[in-house]
Amino acid sequence: MDTDLNAVKVKLEEEKAKLENELSSIGTQNPNNPDDWQAKVDKSEGDNEILEKEADSGDVADNLEEFGSRYSLVNDVLEVRLKAVNDALLAIENGTYGTCNVGGETHQIERERLEANLSATSCVAHMKA
Length: 129
Hints:
Elements: H1 5-26, E1 27-30, E2 33-39, H2 45-52, H3 57-94, E3 99-100, E4 107-108, H4 111-116
Antiparallel strand pairs: 1-2, 3-4
Helix pairs in contact: 1-3
């Protein structure tokens, strides 16, 4: 592969930093498993008041909706993307970056695919595998 691995590594490390920053703003990292993030429960002043007295059902619904959005973003998007970036960085270290191993075959992932997604782990033919 003629991709400049140092440039790829720099871009992946920049993306990793951005993802970790975004995760930190809406989630907390599990101290026992650094790959596991949990959505933060909003502890704003309004929430404390709701906990101290009988809550308005609208406020409760709004808080649950906000938490659900944070939960989905943390667990379904950001954490998954961070894992892919970390796996790509590990592949660079192991000398396997840009290799597709799906279907028992081992071959290079297309350059265009890697340019579109630096953490791709499969070739175009195996994208959905």
